[in-house]
Amino acid sequence: MPSLDAPFAALADPTRRAILARLAQGEATVQDLARPFAISQPAISRHLRVLEEAGLIETRIHGTARPRRLKPDTMAELWTWLGHYRALWEDQFRRLDAVLDRLDDTSEGPGS
Amino acid sequence: MTEAQLTLDGETDVVIRRHFSHPPARVWRALTEPALIRQWLSPDLTDCQMDARPGGSFRYDWPEFFFSGPILEATPPHRMVHVEHFNGDTTEGPTVTTTLSAEAQGTRMTVVMRYRDAAARATAIEQGFTDGIADVYGRIENLSFPA
Question: With a cut of 0.85, is the ipTM above it?
Answer without folding.
Answer: no
